[in-house]
């Protein structure tokens, strides 16, 4: 008779151990995320007339990674541990205690992208389009790391694929980390590539990323265990869901702006063409 849940796979969080040095799977997932972004970015830069050099790609990824680390830590402290920060401001730099926020990391990346665009004379919306496909698979790798670490598990459930996580209580839970992998990782990556095939207006892919991630994360939060010290907030939503709302609104706004700007350019181009044709008649 089936026991109604799956046992958590016996995966050692330490991938490689050499003497006192231990390399964790979670750290390797971060390296994998960076490697995926580096490969995709260089592949795109190698296209004819891409306007990108290998050095620019390396610089973009370096500053983007810096934005993820700094923004992720600052965002986590301000969004999820603000009371701790108020009582102990040095908690902000106590990175060994753990804690990263995707939404904070995103803000960090947006800031570094603005700096990068100014330094290298890149259009900000075009830069967002270039960066959008680089992120989802890296996010998926990070969530796999969360699963291996048996952290950020889901809510208690009786679905057949429920997992009995260690240190998560007596009841099986949603493997919400894998839901993240599927939705905000693999599915979002496929959607961005699909939209790109139609050569959409500048800024569209960046908007699709913001909208797609926001919707995917908002959905998964229904199955993910809320942070113990925050719980469910107003309107029955978690902190993650509240932080996704600006992303969703921003993504919709960027997409609308991109299409309206493109339509305006077409109209102006058509008017100028008509003027020239009348003048030469």
From TrEMBL:
<feature type="transmembrane region" description="Helical">
    <location>
        <begin position="23"/>
        <end position="40"/>
    </location>
</feature>
<keyword id="KW-1003">Cell membrane</keyword>
<feature type="binding site">
    <location>
        <position position="143"/>
    </location>
    <ligand>
        <name>a 1,2-diacyl-sn-glycero-3-phospho-(1'-sn-glycerol)</name>
    </ligand>
</feature>
<feature type="transmembrane region" description="Helical">
    <location>
        <begin position="124"/>
        <end position="144"/>
    </location>
</feature>
<feature type="transmembrane region" description="Helical">
    <location>
        <begin position="203"/>
        <end position="220"/>
    </location>
</feature>
<keyword id="KW-0812">Transmembrane</keyword>
<feature type="transmembrane region" description="Helical">
    <location>
        <begin position="178"/>
        <end position="196"/>
    </location>
</feature>
<dbReference type="InterPro" id="IPR001640">
    <property type="entry name" value="Lgt"/>
</dbReference>
<comment type="similarity">
    <text>Belongs to the Lgt family.</text>
</comment>
<comment type="function">
    <text>Catalyzes the transfer of the diacylglyceryl group from phosphatidylglycerol to the sulfhydryl group of the N-terminal cysteine of a prolipoprotein, the first step in the formation of mature lipoproteins.</text>
</comment>
<feature type="transmembrane region" description="Helical">
    <location>
        <begin position="100"/>
        <end position="117"/>
    </location>
</feature>
<comment type="pathway">
    <text>Protein modification; lipoprotein biosynthesis (diacylglyceryl transfer).</text>
</comment>
<dbReference type="Pfam" id="PF01790">
    <property type="entry name" value="LGT"/>
</dbReference>
<feature type="transmembrane region" description="Helical">
    <location>
        <begin position="240"/>
        <end position="259"/>
    </location>
</feature>
<protein>
    <recommendedName>
        <fullName>Phosphatidylglycerol--prolipoprotein diacylglyceryl transferase</fullName>
        <ecNumber>2.5.1.145</ecNumber>
    </recommendedName>
</protein>
<keyword id="KW-0472">Membrane</keyword>
<keyword id="KW-0808">Transferase</keyword>
<feature type="transmembrane region" description="Helical">
    <location>
        <begin position="60"/>
        <end position="80"/>
    </location>
</feature>
<keyword id="KW-1133">Transmembrane helix</keyword>
<dbReference type="GO" id="GO:0008961">
    <property type="term" value="F:phosphatidylglycerol-prolipoprotein diacylglyceryl transferase activity"/>
</dbReference>
